Amino acid sequence: MDAVIFDLDGVLIDSEQVWDEVRQAFAAAHGGTWTPEATRAMQGMSTPEWGAYLVSAVGVRMSAAEASAGVIAEMEKAYAAHLPVIPGAVETVRSVSSRFPVAIASSAPAVLIKVFLDVTGLPVPVAVSSEECAAGKPSPDVYLLAASRLGVEPSSCYAVEDSTNGLKAALAAGMTVLAVPNPHFPPAADVLAQVRVLSSIADLPDALA
Q: Source organism's superkingdom (predicted)?
């Protein structure tokens, strides 16, 4: 194996709940009505995709671009107050990066990936947002782009994910997938059955060994 590619939300930062709370509050403030399926539907979507979803499915009364920009601005405020780094995540990435080239392949917008890297100072040479791709997760696009920028074949990459759509994306890219299931939004059992499951991100270095 030649590289390790990490998801961000739910793998390195405990942010899925933050995203959910911010989107729900934003929708309520702008004429939307939250639906039970909205949270899981948007996990893995690219920024343009979830912006459009907030308008078309949730009923936010503005354009998709305005909705996504508004939510991202609120997320930046939340991160400025507290960046919820998962315990052991920074140490794990440092350990893994001493043995493999590493990358981040995330549905988060580039500005929020940069906040994470600036705060943690992690040595991650390639960070890709699905904003740069034609489609977000479960499409494999963001993983394929990350592998390409690392200069390695997708089949020679490990991918580390937490959500159903993220796991599907990494599997579709042909990678060897390790799951650290999100405790707040557990992945589908049939998808977990296709990957190796870890109890925490801190277990990754030993799993790769």
A: Bacteria
Strands of the 196-197 sheet, one edge to the other: 126-129, 102-106, 3-6, 157-161, 176-179, 196-197
Query: Strands, E, within 20-133: which ranges?
Result: 102-106, 126-129
Q: Under the phi-then-psi rule, with left for phi > 0, alpha for psi from -120 to 50, and beta for the rest, what region is 113?
A: alpha
pLDDT digits (tens, 9 = 90+) for 88-129: 999 999 999 999 999 999 999 999 999 999 999 998 999 999
CB 104 within 8 Å of CB 48: no
How far apart CA 113 and CA 106 sit, in angstroms, is: 8
Q: Which of 34, 39, 40, 4 is nearest to 191 (CA)?
A: 40
DSSP 8-state symbol, 176: E
Across the strands, what pairs with 24?
none
What's the predicted TM-score (pTM) here? 0.89
Reading the block at residue 30, the tokens are 């702008």
- Helix or strand or coil: residue 103? strand
Per-residue pLDDT reduced to its tens digit, 2-12 = 999 999 999 99
- What CA–CA distance (Å, rounded) separates 131 from 108? 8
